[in-house]
């Protein structure tokens, strides 16, 4: 059985390279075994914490369909195209990133690893990936910024009990050098996470939650607190001085409303299947959102992205970048910053390899013609 110190992913070839002091080749297709990583994380963490991280809402239909929905598409490789080295770098709202695979905001990271968000930020830095810091982080947004003073990082905002406190967080993100503010719009109330209810799950006593005033706890703002509307997009852009990304959009008409109200990007997401259930999969919603937004704003997607070909499918359907949640959780839990870097590096390596196989050499130039629906489905 592997211990936490041993390489968490991959096969002997990768281990031999590591033992020889060589970096595992990022385009080695055998580099990342996410299932093995998850199995290892499950051995290291208490069962109720695993359930909390892995679980979804209600009957978990959305959760169960997420990856399959990307795999309802098939790649359409080009041949004889004289493909050079694959260019993986792109820009997200003007910020340079080395890979179109970013880290989604996820809460309470100190429950997965003592270094929590700091280690995630270091792992992202090692791979040149964008990291999104959650309102429900266990490290303050300023302390994460200190770990990664330069480089791409965004701050994710939840609507808290106190509107004044929420506004203050938006201003702090701007001051601390975050380059975009991500408004999570799919949490008007908390989804019914049945695994947590069955386990009577509670956050460990003393878990730091620096962005939640003590009286608030971590739940969503109660009834009576003003709800967010599209008018809040321009308001938060103004308060923070940052471009605003709206996360949790699953409909073309909503995407168009957000962009008309000043959003610089929309992020197609089911919140990892943890909110309304069953909802349309990100892979199914993405084409409609891309069509509604056109060239007016950037579009990203997350939910069930587990391989380089999933990433490529999302790019072909019009996403400029994708984000991962649970793979980063298992990476952090098993290997801290290195584990996070291995996950992002592994997915990026798989993407590069799959692109090379498909006759594609630039992530910014992947077209809709790169995929087709699986004909036999
Ligand atoms: C344990 C956990 C905590 C999460 N916390 C947040 C959060 O604080 N803010 C947020 O906007 N999304 C949160 N999400 C949703 C993720 O940002 C992302 O949308 C989702 O995990 C992507 O799906 P994947 O896990 O299949 O990659 C969380 C997801 C998980 C699994």
TrEMBL record:
UniProt keyword terms in alphabetical order: Flavoprotein, FMN, Oxidoreductase
Cellular component GO terms held in the UniProt record: cytoplasm
Superkingdom as given in the UniProt entry: Bacteria
First and last residue of the signal peptide: none
EC number: 1.1.3.46
InterPro entries linked: Aldolase_TIM (IPR013785), Alpha-hydoxy_acid_DH_FMN (IPR012133), FMN-dep_DH (IPR000262), FMN_HAD (IPR037396)
Needed co-factor(s): FMN
GO MF term set: FMN binding; oxidoreductase activity
Active site: 271
Residues holding glyoxylate: 193, 271, 274
Keyword DNA repair: no
Region (Disordered): 1-29
Chain sites annotated for binding FMN: 105-107, 134, 156, 158, 184, 247, 269, 302-306, 325-326
Domain annotation FMN hydroxy acid dehydrogenase: ranges: 26-376
Biased composition (Polar residues): 1-12
Similarity-based family: Belongs to the FMN-dependent alpha-hydroxy acid dehydrogenase family.
Designated name of the protein: 4-hydroxymandelate oxidase
Biological classification of the source: Bacteria, Bacillati, Actinomycetota, Actinomycetes, Geodermatophilales
């Amino acid at each position: 059985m592997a211990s936490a110190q041993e390489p968490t992913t991959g096969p002997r070839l990768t281990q031999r390279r590591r033992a020889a002091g060589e970096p595992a080749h990022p385009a080695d297709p055998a580099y990342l075994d996410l299932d093995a990583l998850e199995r290892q994380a499950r051995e290291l963490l208490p069962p109720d914490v695993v359930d909390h991280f892995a679980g979804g809402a209600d009957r978990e239909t959305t959760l169960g369909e997420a990856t399959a929905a990307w795999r309802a598409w098939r790649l359409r490789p080009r041949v004889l195209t004289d493909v050079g080295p694959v260019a993986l770098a792109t820009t997200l709202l003007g910020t340079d990133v080395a890979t179109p695979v970013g880290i989604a905001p996820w809460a309470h990271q100190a429950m997965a690893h003592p270094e929590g968000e700091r280690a995630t930020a270091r792992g992202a830095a090692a791979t040149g990936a964008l990291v999104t810091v959650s309102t429900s982080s266990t490290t303050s947004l300023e302390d994460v910024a200190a770990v990664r003073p330069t480089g791409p990082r965004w701050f994710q905002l939840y609507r808290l009990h106190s509107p004044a406190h929420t506004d203050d967080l938006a201003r702090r993100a701007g001051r601390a050098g975050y380059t975009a503010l991500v408004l999570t719009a799919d949490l008007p109330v908390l989804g019914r996470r049945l695994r947590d209810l069955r386990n009577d799950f509670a956050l460990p006593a003393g878990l730091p939650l620096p962005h939640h005033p003590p009286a608030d706890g971590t739940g969503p703002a109660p009834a009576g607190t003003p709800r967010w509307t599209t008018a809040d997009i321009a308001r938060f852009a103004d308060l923070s001085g940052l471009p605003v990304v709206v996360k949790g959009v699953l409909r073309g008409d909503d995407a168009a409303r957000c962009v008309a109200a000043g959003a610089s990007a929309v992020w197609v997401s089911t919140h990892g299947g943890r909110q309304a259930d069953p909802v349309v999969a990100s892979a199914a919603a993405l084409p409609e959102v891309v069509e509604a937004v056109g060239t007016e704003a950037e579009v990203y997607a997350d939910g069930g992205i587990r391989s380089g070909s999933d990433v490529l499918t999302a790019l072909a359907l019009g996403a400029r970048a994708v984000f991962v949640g649970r793979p980063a959780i298992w990476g952090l839990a098993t290997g801290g910053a290195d584990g996070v870097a291995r996950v992002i590096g592994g997915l990026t390596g798989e993407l590069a390899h799959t692109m090379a196989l498909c006759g594609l050499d630039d992530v910014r130039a992947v077209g809709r013609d790169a995929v087709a629906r699986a004909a036999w489905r």
